[in-house]
């Protein structure tokens, strides 16, 4: 892997609690399509981009998607950002997936014959 490339995650959660489901869903579909057209992929509930761009450039790229959707806001009752509950960036080098076992405990594998093997 190129050491100057980093991976960033962009989390966008719609505010379904305070807005109509149909509007939030339609807006989410537009956001998703536009993020993908900007080369973000969708993985683990976030948009992910591996790039040589810096953090600020990636954040600006994500903000630009939502700001451009403001041009379509006549389709919505309010500003696009009013429908967004969370919108933040994560440097994936700091990301910890807590669904995985702790690295110091190892992984236990059970073979078909029922014998346990501990990997460190």
- Radius of gyration equals 19 Å
What is the CATH first-level class name? Answer: Alpha Beta
> What's the end-to-end separation, in Å?
25 Å
Please give the share of residues in helix. 25-40%
Low-pLDDT residue intervals, each spanning 5 or more residues: none
| Structural class based on helices, strands and sheet pairing | alpha+beta
Which series of helices and strands comes N to C?
EHEEHEEE
Number of domains: 1
Number of helices: 2
Describe the global form: globular
Total strands: the figure is: 6
CATH-derived topology: Alpha-Beta Plaits
Summary keywords:
120 residues; alpha+beta; Alpha-Beta Plaits; four-stranded antiparallel β-sheet
How would you describe this structure to a colleague?
The chain has a four-stranded antiparallel sheet. The chain has a two-stranded antiparallel sheet with strand order 5-6. By secondary structure, it is of the alpha+beta class. It has a single domain (6-119), classed as Alpha-Beta Plaits (2-Layer Sandwich). It has two helices and six strands, in the order βαββαβββ. β5 (107-110) and β6 (116-119) form a beta hairpin.
